[in-house]
Amino acid sequence: MICHKIISTYDKKLLKRETENFFNKLKLNIRNEKVLLKPNLISPKKYANTHPVVVESVAEFLKDCGNSLFIGDSPGVGTSKLNMKVSGYSGFLKRLDVKLYPFNKTVRIKRHENKVLKNFNISTPAVEFDNIINIAKLKTHVMTGMTLSVKNLFGFIAGKEKVYYHLKAGHDLKIFADILIDIYETVCPTLNIIDGITGMEGNGPTSGTSANFNIFAASANGYLLDRTIEKAVGFKGKTIISKQAEKRGLLQSDIENTISENIKIKHAKTMSASFYIPKFITSLFSVKPVINNKLCRKCNKCKNSCPTQAIFYESGNLKVDYSKCIKCYCCHELCIYNAVDLKRKIFYIT
Ligand code: SF4
Ligand code: SF4
Predict the structure, then answer these.
(1) CA of 328 to the centre of ligand 2 (A)
(2) CA 196 to chain centre
(3) Which of 1, 46, 58, 268 is the most exposed place for a label (fewest CB within 10 A)?
(4) pLDDT over 50 at 277, yes or no
(5) Distance of CA 338 from the midpoint of ligand 1 (Å)
C-alpha cells in the first residue's frame, strides 16, 4: 500500500500530521523502541539531501511515541556529520536527542537468498536495528534513471567499498540494480518515505537542479513506492531497479494496474535516455564524463574514487581514459565543484 500527500511547502506541522497518518494507514505502531533514521545525506550540497524539515517531522512523531532515535548514512562526499550540519539538521537533532550512529564499522554477512551479494560487508546498523526508517529524496539519477527508496540504501555500504560494487557491476546496469536490491533485502527497512516536495531533475543525484514535485509519500514496500513515483514523474518504461525487482518477483507485474494514475505531479527532466527520447535513438548515444578543467580544483576526489583508475593527469589537467571508463558516473556524483560534465556523444567515440 502507498500513502501520499500533495504538499507544496516544508511545513513541519503538516508533515508531522501526514507522517502520523501514514503510520496509522499502514498500521505501523513503533513505540519505546530503538529506531534508526536513514536520510539521503549524499553530499555537502544541501539541496541533494533529504530536507531537514521532513526528517525533523518524522523524528518528532517517533519521539512522541517514546522511541530512542539514531541517525546515519555513509555519504560519497563529506561525512554524514558535515552533510547534516550544512543541510540544517543540527538544531532538531539536539532538541530531539537524535544520536549520530556510525556507518563506518562493517559486519560480514552471508545471505544465500541474495542474487549477487551472497557474502559481503554491510554497515553494522543494518543488523543492529530492527526498526529502520528509510527517508529518501526524489531525484533523477544519471546511472539508474531515478534514485528513490531502494537506491537510498546504498549508503549502508561503507565509504569507499561502494567503489568495489561499481567495479563488480562494470558496464552491466542489471548487476548494479541487483546489488542495490540485495542491499534493500538485507536492510529490510520498516518504512520507506520519499521527500519529493522539492526534488532534483537533470544531472542528479548531485549536480541537477531543484524541482518542485510537491509530493510526500510512504510505503512499507520500497519497490512499489519507487515504481509509483517513477511513473508519476513521467519515467518512460521502468527504471532498471524496477525491472530487476519485477524479474525477481519482488514487484508484481500486475501491480501496474493498481498504481494510481491520479498522482498528478510535475514530470522530471533528466539526462537519462529513458525519459523523453525514443529508445532506438538513445541506443546510438552514450553519456560520458568530461572534466571541465576551468572549474576543477584538483582535489583528486574523482581520481581517487574512480573504480577503474580511468582518470589521469596530462599536462597538469585531469582527463578520462574512455577505454577504461565503465560509466558509473561516480566522478560526476562526487565532484562538489560541478567540474565533471556529462556529455551525450553519438556512438561514444573514445
Ligand atoms: S573534477 Fe572535481 S572531484 Fe575531480 S579533481 Fe577536479 S574538483 Fe576534484
Ligand atoms: S571516469 Fe568516472 S564514470 Fe568513468 S569509471 Fe571513472 S568514476 Fe566511473
Answers:
(1) 5
(2) 12
(3) 1
(4) no
(5) 8
